[in-house]
Structure formats: structure tokens, C-alpha cells
């Protein structure tokens, strides 16, 4: 993994971690300190008013009930962000207070989901200027960062919205790389990118069809059937729908084609034997 030379490193993909000056933050001191930090991180660049913060951190409580708790959480975050530096040093990040609310100011910080978005944007620009090689490099780097969903296990609406956005970026990168492999006819890479795509979103039925077709082309009928069965199970369990008729027809066609090929080989005349 490439070393990151910033004062703060924030990872939210596949799980949350915060490193300050090379040291991991392991304790958050107050119950909502971590959530406050993350909410301000998502909304960095703007001042979030106190009512919005109360609604985000304590959705089932009244503003009055959480008023002092917000101050406690804010103080805890401040202590964490400033606790691993000398008095004269500038913090990597800090909470800025105003009469309207709080904002998070980043001075020297690296965020994995922000870097993923930057790489995807660079990939889009490279593709737009007809530079597929550069685009592929950017997209591969973006996918390397996507080690899992954004803040898995966090059920708040703000986290789900960000999770969906990051997932859409990763799927766009995977789709570009999949199409590139298909265009080149690199079937092992096609299979790898299909699997990578399904790791991000297991309900991409067109990707299952690609896997069925590729394994059929390779004569791997057992694998083709397995992907069909997995697709059907996931569609049923996760979306409560059946596979589309196109997917069923594709499997039937792959099996018929391979069966016909096998019969042709079996019926082909053997080598002629002549008597010496």
C-alpha cells in the first residue's frame, strides 16, 4: 500500500479508521463524538447548524434533551484532533464554531472516499479525451481503494446516501474496465472484473449473463450453471424477483450450443486405417 504523507488519514471504505500523525485513534471518549466527526466530515466545507446536528445524532430525541450532549461530543472531537500535536503546531483538522453551528476544517488530511472520487473524475476526463489507457489506470486505482462499502453497518440516512454515491462511482469504474476487457477479448480479465463488480453490487443481472456467456465460450458448463443459480438465488432472496427471461434463454442457448458441439465431435469419423 502506498504510504500517505499527510497529518490525518481517514478511511471509511470497508470500515472506519482515523490516524493522526501516524498514530491510530482508538478511543472516542464520548458516545456521539465519532458520529459527530463523521457527519461533519461528510458535510465538510459548510457550517452545519445545531438543529441539523441534533436531528442527525439524536433522531429520536428532542433538541433540548441533546443540547448539552452536542457540546460534550464537540469537546471530545476537539480533544482527539488536537491531542497528538505540540501547542505551536497546526492541527490536521479542527472543528470551527460559529453562532450558527459547527464546521470541520481540514488542513492536511487524506480521505479514502474523496480520493476514490477524484480518481474516478480523472478517469472520466481521460475517457472523454479518448485516452482509454490513462482512464483504465485511474479506474483501477479507484477500485483498489474500494475495499468495502462506505461505513458498513452505519444505518443513518446520511451514511446510506454517501454509501450509494461511492458505490455508484466504483460500479462506473468497474464497468469501464469490464468493457475494456471484453473489447480486448481477455476472458480471464472479463471474469475477474465481473466478480469485482458483483462484490460491489450483487444484483447486476447483466454481469451474471456475461459470466454465463464467457464460461460457456470456454466450455465450462458447470461454472455457467453455478453463476445462473447464484444469480437466481440472489434475485429471489435480495429483491424478491426471478431472473429475467433473457438470462434463462442465455443459459439454455449456451447448454444447447455446447451439447451440439459435443455431438459433432462424437459423430466425426475417426482416422482411416489402411492395411499395409
What brief labels describe this structure?
276 residues; alpha+beta; Arc Repressor Mutant, subunit A; 4-stranded mixed β-sheet; 3-stranded antiparallel β-sheet; 7 strands; elongated; disordered C terminus
Structural features, described:
By secondary structure, the protein is of the alpha+beta class. It has a domain at 8-107: Arc Repressor Mutant, subunit A. 60% of the residues lie in helices and 9% in strands. It is built from ten helices and seven strands. The chain has helices at 33-42, 50-57, 63-82, 112-128, 132-145, 157-184, 187-200, 205-217, 221-239, 245-267, and strands spanning 8-11, 17-20, 23-24, 48-49, 93-97, 101-106, 109-111. The strands form two sheets. The chain has a four-stranded mixed beta sheet. Strands 4-6-5 form a three-stranded antiparallel beta sheet. Helix 5 packs across helix 6 and helix 9 (221-239) runs antiparallel to helix 10 (245-267). It is elongated, with a radius of gyration of 26 Å. It starts with 7 loop residues before the first strand and ends in a 9-residue tail after the last helix. 30% of the residues are buried.
Amino acid at each position: 500500500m502506498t504510504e500517505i504523507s499527510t497529518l490525518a488519514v481517514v478511511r471509511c471504505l470497508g470500515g472506519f479508521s482515523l490516524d493522526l500523525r501516524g498514530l491510530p485513534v482508538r478511543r472516542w471518549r464520548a458516545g456521539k463524538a465519532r458520529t459527530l466527526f463523521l457527519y461533519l466530515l461528510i458535510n465538510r466545507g459548510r457550517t452545519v447548524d445545531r438543529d441539523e446536528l441534533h436531528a442527525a445524532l439524536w433522531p429520536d430525541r428532542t433538541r433540548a434533551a441533546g443540547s448539552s450532549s452536542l457540546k460534550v461530543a464537540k469537546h471530545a472531537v476537539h480533544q482527539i484532533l488536537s491531542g497528538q500535536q505540540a501547542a505551536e503546531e497546526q492541527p490536521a483538522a479542527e472543528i470551527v464554531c460559529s453562532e450558527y453551528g459547527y464546521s470541520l476544517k481540514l488542513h492536511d488530511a487524506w480521505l479514502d472516499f474523496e480520493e476514490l472520487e477524484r480518481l474516478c473524475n480523472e478517469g472520466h476526463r481521460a475517457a472523454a479525451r479518448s485516452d482509454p489507457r490513462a482512464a483504465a489506470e485511474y479506474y483501477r486505482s479507484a477500485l483498489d481503494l474500494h475495499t468495502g462499502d462506505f461505513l458498513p453497518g452505519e444505518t443513518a440516512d446520511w451514511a446510506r446516501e454517501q454509501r450509494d454515491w461511492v458505490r455508484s462511482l466504483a460500479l462506473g469504474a468497474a464497468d469501464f474496465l469490464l468493457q475494456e476487457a471484453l473489447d480486448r477479448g481477455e476472458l480471464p480479465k472479463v471474469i475477474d472484473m465481473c466478480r469485482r463488480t458483483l462484490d460491489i453490487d450483487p444484483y447486476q443481472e447483466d454481469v451474471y449473463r456475461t459470466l454465463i456467456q464467457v464460461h460457456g465460450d470456454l466450455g465450462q458448463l458447470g461454472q455457467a450453471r453455478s453463476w445462473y443459480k447464484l444469480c437466481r438465488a440472489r434475485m429471489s432472496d435480495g429483491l424478491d424477483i426471478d431472473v429475467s427471461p433473457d438470462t434463462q434463454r442465455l443459459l439454455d442457448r449456451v447448454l444447447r450450443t455446447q451439447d451440439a458441439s459435443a455431438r459433432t465431435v462424437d459423430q466425426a469419423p475417426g482416422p482411416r486405417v489402411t492395411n499395409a
